[in-house]
Amino acid sequence: MKKSIILITFFMIWGAALPLPLNHVSDQHVSATEIRSLLQTHPNPLESLPLQEVILRYVHQQITGAKTGHMLNQTMTEVLHKVWDGSAWENSEMEHIYLDANGWATESYSYSWEGSTWVNTMYVIITNNSNGYPISILMKMWDGNAWIDMAQMTITYTAFGQPLEMIMQFNAGGGWMNAMKEIYTYNTQEQCMNILQQSWDMVLLTWMNDSKDTFTYDANGWMIEELSQVWENNAWMNEEIAYSTYDGSGHETEKLAKVWISNGWENYQHFIYSYNTQWLLSQEKCESWYNNVWNNLYQYIYQYDSQERMTEELFQIWESEKGWENEDISTWTYDLSVAIGENISSTPAF
After folding, report:
1. pLDDT score of 156 more than 90
2. Is the pLDDT of residue 237 over 80?
3. Which of the chain's ends, N or C, has fewer CB atoms near its CB within 10 Å?
4. What is the DSSP letter of 92?
5. pLDDT number for residue 46
6. C-alpha span between 240 and 294 (Å, rounded)
7. d(Cα 196, Cα 333) in Å, to the nearest integer?
8. Pairing of β 323-337 and β 75-84
9. Environment class of residue 301 by beta-carbon count within 10 Å: exposed (0-12), middle (13-18) or buried (19+)?
10. How far is the C-alpha of 296 from the C-alpha of 316, rounded, in Å?
11. Do residues 226 and 215 touch, judged by C-beta distance below 8 A?
12. Rounded to two decimals, what is the model's pTM?
């Protein structure tokens, strides 16, 4: 929901996909360049909850976006992001994702396009367990001369491989400081029932409730309702709710999101999902509720290769007078060779 941070539409190449309640509404993709821009305004993440949530959302993109786990030799995947300037695509950001011999992501570098060259932005180090699930993620930002530790995430799992707890900390200069925590609970069918998000109170030195997502499933095991609540005045207050619709094979076709206003639910956003012949998501369209009718807002269009791996993600916004207008595009290039013994942890290629 609004404060939920798990995405399904951000496809990357992390070695295994975590089976979580995905597809939370109202979340769009976060880039390393965006984080760097926000840090210029809020240099201390511990003093900015919105910045913490953006960084946490970025981390979730790293660990929940995998849709095409596959076994490879040591390789690199390149993700190139471009923005539309009104007439042509211009470079914006690039990511290099390194996979080990098991096909699990271990490191990534992000670069931003400045003028006519790529500039270091973010460096992410992933430590995986024996099942390929990340148990720690370390994020470093480039200060112009060196990589500086910024944030780290530690993750624990249940016996059946689902996330149990995630804790995010920030580098406060003199050491790591707690920032945010997520706690997951499951039913006997191993379905996630709740995600509790808490923030660290630096005065009381304890975790305080922030938001909670509650999930409801039908007899088929398909998630049909997502309720988002925030903690206010020592009570849970409704914020947003979403209802999902599926076809006979369990593919989500629609999602209706509503917000809590004046003690009642009011329409907010409507998502429509389309699939290709391999039942891979090919289009995600979002409509917003305005003047008692649904109006086009934005859409994502996806392309895949013969191995069903994401190759292109096109993001467009709706202009009432022009129709769908390009906004940005991302392309994936897979299986780029990494020399055996290459020290990918030292200095990036740019």
Report:
1. yes
2. yes
3. C
4. E
5. 62
6. 18
7. 36
8. antiparallel
9. middle
10. 11
11. yes
12. 0.80
